[in-house]
Inverse folding.
């Protein structure tokens, strides 16, 4: 048990699959509220890109990297919570951002056993433009469905990217998961505040069954790409087209040749965007990716992006072999999103 003050601190867990918009929601909360938040960001990758995208605030942002907290409530998580509870100035609220493949309820359960914490809500974001296909995907469908199992509130995000018929289909996909789900339609510029009200009534002595709990360390693989270089933009577009479909998400900062400031690269499926990055003194390239368990080796993935570096003198056709399938890019038919749109944060 964590040694802590007697006063209880509300805890909200924010979950949602890769690219649903969790970081955008957190930044909205930090910019629009005067509360002093402690923000814990759990990234499945070895580098916590999401934490670097959290807006500056009067509270504290702490990182939990290289694995799912929901799979193992390890010493790092307990130690981080201890630091928060021992802070001389009490925090008004603790917000925990689950990893994109994590189960937010598994994280929320810690608030049920620590007397100084009170579980406020489990909020799950869903990408309205993808949720229907994600739920039906044999590779990730179970993971996505589990995230909504104990949600108090669902934010059906990026609704502005859809027509009304598609928006209704996305909403119906969520409604079909569980009776009584509270759903709010949101976009990057229309986010709600944290729900307030009576605490959810859950016994501190109750816990979910630990039967057939997903092991995200086996289901998903992480990949990090670091280079002290810059990308040639045209080559980068070709390289992104050549990345295999087993790579679900790619995100991070990079330099583009001829541009003074860093760019934020975000890729989800075949859609990607490059937008100005709000980071200080960013040099080189730092990207993190998450894929399913048959994601090709890091060296093969590195080779694809290496061909986009400015130090590369020639750019042959880029290909990668995996499970007898070849994914090859020889042209410039791109799926980049319109300038300034950030759909995947």
């Amino acid at each position: 048990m964590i040694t802590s003050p007697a006063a209880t601190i509300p805890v909200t867990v924010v979950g949602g699959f890769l690219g649903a918009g969790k970081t955008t929601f957190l930044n909205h909360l930090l910019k629009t509220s005067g509360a002093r938040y402690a923000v814990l960001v759990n990234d499945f990758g070895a580098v916590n890109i999401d934490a670097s995208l959290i807006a500056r605030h009067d509270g504290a942002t702490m990182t939990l990297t290289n694995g799912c907290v929901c799979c193992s409530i390890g010493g790092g998580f307990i130690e981080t919570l201890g630091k928060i509870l021992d802070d001389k100035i009490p925090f008004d609220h603790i917000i925990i951002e689950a990893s994109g493949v994590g189960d937010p309820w598994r994280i929320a359960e810690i608030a049920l056993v620590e007397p100084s914490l009170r579980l406020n809500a489990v909020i799950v974001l869903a990408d309205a433009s993808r949720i229907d296909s994600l739920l039906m995907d044999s590779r990730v469908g179970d993971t996505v469905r589990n995230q909504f199992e104990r949600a108090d509130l669902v934010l059906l995000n990026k609704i502005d990217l859809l027509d009304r018929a598609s928006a209704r289909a996305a909403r119906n996909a969520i409604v079909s998961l569980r009776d009584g789900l509270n759903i709010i339609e949101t976009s990057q510029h229309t986010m709600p505040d944290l729900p307030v009200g009576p605490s959810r009534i859950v016994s501190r002595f109750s816990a979910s069954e630990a039967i057939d709990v997903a092991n995200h360390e086996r289901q998903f693989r992480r990949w990090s790409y670091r280079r002290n270089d810059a990308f040639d933009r045209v080559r980068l577009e070709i390289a992104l087209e050549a990345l295999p479909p087993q790579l679900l998400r790619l995100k991070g900062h990079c330099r583009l040749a001829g541009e003074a400031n860093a760019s934020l690269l975000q890729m989800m499926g075949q859609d990607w965007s490059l937008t100005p990055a709000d980071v200080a003194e960013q040099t080189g390239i730092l990207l993190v990716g998450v894929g399913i368990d048959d994601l090709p080796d890091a060296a093969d993935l590195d080779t694809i992006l290496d061909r986009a570096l400015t130090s590369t003198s020639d750019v042959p056709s880029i290909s990668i072999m995996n499970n007898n399938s070849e994914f090859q890019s020889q042209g410039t038919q791109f799926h980049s999103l319109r300038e300034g749109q950030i759909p995947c944060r």
